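Database export, one record per block. Field names are fixed; values are copied verbatim from the stored entry.
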Amino acid sequence: MPRPIRYQSRYSLPASELYATLVDREYLQARLDRIGGDNAQLLDLSSDADSAKYSMRQGVSQKYLPGPIRSFLRGDLVIERTETWRLARPGHYDGTVTARVKDAPGSMGGALRVADIAGGSEFVLDAEAKVDVPLIGGKIESAIAEQVVKLIEREARFTEEWLAR
């Protein structure tokens, strides 16, 4: 059964400025350089004021993985992640995120949102992790969900630092 992943963070700038930052090549590359892990790479990016799509590769050394994932994989965790964004209405951007683990029967997918709120904007991730492995799939899904939240928290801290420059 897929494991839900939910995360939200708030920023003091309007959604249009947060969106512009989240899909900016320089920002994405700096974020990957800082927290993307081994062999991180921005694979593709196209963006404008109303829509964006980018793909990236992120890595996590096996030594940092929780036991259930480490016992299942035969090496480092390599994640290929794609995000799409579109302007739904002024001050509100909707998106999707998909991620696949290389050489593993697991995936993550869900919805993204950046929207104006009182005093700024809010980023929301509402997704789920799914692993098609009998008996231990649930444990791996839980571990993946936990690791995704930790990664998104690190990305949010990086975004706050980037915006404060």
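Remark 1: The radius of gyration is 16 Å.
Remark 2: The beta strands are 3-11, 41-47, 51-60, 77-89, 92-101, 106-117, 120-131.
End of record.
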